[in-house]
Design brief:
Blueprint (H helix, E strand, L loop, with lengths): L1 H21 L5 E2 L10 H16 L5 E8 L2 E12 L4 E2 L6 E4 L2 H14 L20 E6 L6 E5 L6 H6 L29 H10 L15 H13 L3 H13 L20 E2 L8 E2 L3 H5 L15 E3 L1 H12 L3 E2 L2 E2 L3 H5 L18 E2 L4 E2 L15 E5 L3 E6 L4 E6 L8 H13 L5
Parallel strand pairs: 1-3
Antiparallel strand pairs: 2-3, 2-17, 3-4, 5-10, 6-7, 8-9, 11-12, 13-14, 14-15, 15-16, 16-17
Helix pairs in contact: 3-6, 5-6
Length: 425
């Protein structure tokens, strides 16, 4: 009998990490970080590096959050919330997170899918008839204004929108023509998804649906789909169905008055040798605070604290559960951690794949560095990024608010590398 008991013990030992992984309901500080497979001495390299970037004025600030097996290993703030006012950054200050909004909208779509209210391969025209009979842009003559299009090979599906393979881009060639003008990241005007999305639909696609990865305003369309199916504003759906259950108390499209002082200033650095200056883009600076507050961009509209977003990352790492609440079935979350574009399509200039709402590092990813295959990531235009690594039971997030940010890729890659190099097992 002893060999049988031994085998059972080995089986339990093998199952235990996954069992504990699924049971993480709150992120709490690690009393002894080394017990969680990390070297505190090597992780300290992260401190010296971030301090050096702030001191050199390469970035105005940074805040970090690293957790493994549900234990917080690094959660620190560096630099300034507002340089001109001499206000130091605090860990719970609020940042513009732009495209980190996309994964949250994706979760909303997956929730509706689980409820039987949509299928991934439904044509989007089933819900928004103005998307019927899409056209592909063949030629645009900027001198004469002549536009030539052809019929697309098929309709756009919800799957195409989830994977950014619809042909809907950011930076459309016709975006400055009046019939096609839409808000890029945010709006201070009385825009709504109901008025913006039909304009997105009126633009010709850049390619046939499903044939290439083109990052664009797909998730804004999905945000409107959530509104149409649920009968609620995207703001309300997020708050009641995702933020409150998970405990994301500081994530908003538009900040309540009492939280406005916690919003970090937005800076700009046009070139690596430029000085940090306050961003001249008024809308990007003030959209969380001013304007009509009616445009809920599912692709880029949220502001948040790093701890709030860490809860969302842990929710995904837990395969759909956090804070004692299960919002998605495990199999739905699994869809977000495997390649969904296939057919030899990768993100341009990389070997990396894309799932539903997340980038997926390949086994030989240059941008991913030390990240293993299957780790997921994404970020925001203002300088934030996160990585979720199921194999390592690890989440890591770094925030700054700087746009343009010429050293952005270096900053984000170094952060990821310095976290991974501190792992001991």
């Amino acid at each position: 009998m002893r060999p049988i008991y031994t085998a059972m013990l080995w089986l339990l030992a093998a199952m235990l990490p996954g069992f504990l992984h699924a049971q993480v309901q709150q992120l709490t500080p690690a009393e002894i970080p080394s017990e969680y497979g990390i070297s505190p001495g090597k992780l300290a390299n992260l401190d010296s590096w971030l301090q050096s970037w702030v001191q050199a004025k390469k970035v105005p600030n940074a805040v970090t959050f690293v957790a493994r097996r549900g234990k917080i290993l690094h959660y620190k703030a560096y630099g300034w919330q507002n340089i001109q006012q001499g206000t130091e950054l605090k860990r719970d200050d609020i940042f513009r997170i732009a495209s980190q909004t996309k994964a949250i909208t994706t979760v909303a779509i997956l929730m509706l899918h689980e409820e039987g209210k949509l299928f991934f391969d439904d044509p989007i025209s089933k819900y928004m008839p103005f998307f019927a009979n899409p056209q592909v842009l063949v030629r645009y003559d900027t001198t004469t204004g002549a536009i030539e299009t052809r019929p697309a090979s098929r309709e756009i599906t919800i799957r195409d929108l989830l994977t950014h393979t619809s042909g809907i881009p950011y930076g459309h060639p016709l975006e400055n023509l009046e019939p096609y003008k839409v808000p890029y990241l945010n709006s201070l005007e009385p825009d709504r998804l109901s008025s913006v999305v039909p304009k997105i639909a009126a633009r010709p696609l850049l390619h046939d649906p499903g044939t290439a990865f083109t990052y664009g305003m797909n998730t804004d369309v999905l945000g409107y789909l959530v509104e149409l199916i649920s009968g609620e504003s995207l703001d309300t759906f997020f708050r009641e169905r995702i933020f409150l259950p998970i405990g994301m108390k500081d994530t908003h499209f538009y900040l309540p008055v009492e939280k406005a002082p916690r919003l970090v200033e937005l800076y700009a650095k046009p070139h690596p040798d430029s000085q940090l200056v306050v961003s001249p883009e008024f809308s990007n600076r003030y959209f969380p605070l001013q304007g009509t507050r009616t445009y809920f961009s599912g692709g880029a509209g949220l502001v948040s604290t790093i701890e709030d977003y860490a809860k969302f990352c842990q929710f995904l790492l837990n395969r759909g559960e956090f804070n004692g609440k299960r919002l998605l079935g495990a199999k739905s979350v699994d869809l977000m951690f495997r390649d969904q574009i296939g057919n030899g399509i990768t993100m341009p200039g990389t070997t990396d794949m894309f799932s539903f709402g997340l980038g997926i590092f390949s086994g030989h990813s240059d941008y991913g560095g030390l990240a293993g295959p299957g780790a997921a990531w994404w970020g925001g235009a203002y300088g934030s990024e996160y990585t979720i690594d199921p194999k390592e039971n690890l989440i890591m997030i770094v925030y700054t608010n700087l746009m343009p940010f010429p050293e952005r890729a270096e900053f984000l890659r170094k952060f990821r590398t310095l976290v991974y190099q501190s792992l001991t097992n």
